[in-house]
Amino acid sequence: LKQHNGRHLWHPMAHPQAIRDTPPDIIARGEGSWVWDIDGHKMLDGVGGLWSANLGHSNRAVRDAIVAQMDTLPFYNAFRGTTHVKAIELSTRLVEMMQPEGVQAVVFSNGGSDAVEGALKIARQFHKLRGQKDRSKFISLRQGYHGVHFGGMSVNGNSNFRRAYEPLLPGCFHVDTPWLYRNPFTDDPERLSEICAELLEREIVFQGPDTVAAFIAEPVQGAGGVIVPPASYWPRVREICDRHGVLLIADEVVTGFGRTGELFGTRLWGVNADIWCLAKGISSGYVPLGATAIGAKVADAFLSDTSGLGAVSHGYTYSAHPVAAAAALATFDELVRLDVVGNAARVGARLQERLRRLPQRCAFVGDVRGIGLMIGIEMVTDQASRAPMPRTSDIPARVARAAYRRGLMVRISGPNLILSPPLTISAEEIDFLCEVLEASFDEVGA
Ligand code: PMP
Q1: pLDDT tens digit string along 86-105?
Q2: Domains of the chain, residue spans
Q3: Band (330; pLDDT cuts 50, 70, 90)
Q4: Which family does it belong to (predicted)?
Q5: 222 Cα: distance to centroid of ligand 1 (angstroms)
């Protein structure tokens, strides 16, 4: 097995030659917050299936729901004229869960990139249904991440994810993220929120408001390095979008289903989006599933359409796959039974509090930021000047190797070490995670 590792399987976001030169770690088993590699080495899973294994590994209830569905109806389509029991149950439950948001309908797909694509298409279609056929542009944030399909890639902030695939969707523009640690404006969060909101409004006005379909952003940015906006930013964004008739799309692929210590990220900011992108935690990573949730304003435009343009031409053979739907329904039950969101808030606060002391003990830790059970640790070459860690530095990888050896899986993304453990993680496991991480930074810093 080890001989074949990295030979035929090209990994997302990795150079095929790099995968050959440094074969990936092979994970063989998972249980709760823990995973074992092929050599039997046990590690706490600080990566959590890339923000998705929210219930931890081998959750019994989800497993039983999947097996029961396999024994009843392993597959059928929910496509045009046919549906199945679990598709109806899941759509009903999800809409119920999102009643504070006023969600009316949901379109299922197979993952986060699909959910984003659905949101972008439905936003354009909404304006067409209302007779505003020129509203086709999208605005997003420079550090935002929205998946790998052509629409999502076009609104991605980081050009590393885009440039090999250009030309992309025309009419996509990026504005500054309210990122306290790195911005050319100010160290005052309130002022930064004002400035970044104003930059968004100026971009809308510059483009011509009646050409802009939607603004898309993550309530807390994940892949961009875990960037939490100031509390007043999203309320300001909502106001601006309303003023100019622009839809607000919340990409909750990471933040949805409890990651931040709230069930949905928009709840952190007391703001409603018009469309939500959901995936990952929706099925706790057990089976691929994505969803685009549609609020009342957008749903009404479709329901009252008489032009014939209102058919949703976004759906897949496997939309609302019965096994994925069964896994999601069991996940929702477990979220309640295990008080997963409350746990994420409680142990998340413990994690945040302890790791925020890291810059005091380690000279190459510049910033520790996050909320709930999402944390980004940014490494720098100099704390005072905040000089970024160069891409060629091996320090981030050395910290990750030290943690691995000591029994902790972490993820490195550029200069950032990113943590997104299962939301069911215990306080004791959080303490273990912090101890290992501190020792690993000490070791590399020594
Ligand atoms: N949106 C966000 C905010 C994400 O973080 C991701 C994936 N990390 C996606 C979309 C794409 O999701 P997927 O990988 O399931 O296609």
Answers
A1: 999 999 999 999 999 999 99
A2: 2-55+339-445, 63-337
A3: very high
A4: Belongs to the class-III pyridoxal-phosphate-dependent aminotransferase family.
A5: 9
Please tell me the residue having the least CA distance from ligand 1 atom 12. 112
Which CATH number describes the domain made up of 2-55+339-445? 3.90.1150.10
Kindly list the distances between the CA atom of residue 198 and the CA atoms of 26, 143, 239, 244, 316, in Å, as whole numbers in the listed order.
Answer: 47, 17, 11, 13, 39
Say whether 277 sits in a helix, a strand or coil.
strand
State in Å: Cα 284 to ligand 1 middle: 14
Number of residues that make up the chain: 446
Q: Are domains 2-55+339-445 and 63-337 of this chain identical in fold?
A: no
CA of 148 to the centre of ligand 1 (A): 8
Q: In the structure encoding, which two tokens stand for residue 175, read together?
A: 């504005």
Q: Considering only CA atoms, which residue is closest to atom 15 of ligand 1?
A: 112
Q: Give how far Cα 216 sits from Cα of 133, 139, 246, 249, Å.
A: 19, 6, 10, 5
- Closest atom of ligand 1 to 51 CA is 8
Q: Each residue of 206-237: pLDDT tens digit?
A: 999 999 999 999 999 999 999 999 999 999 99
Stated as kind and residue range, the H or E segment containing 192 is: helix 189-207
Model pTM?
A: 0.98
Of all atoms in ligand 1, which is nearest to the CA of residue 218?
3
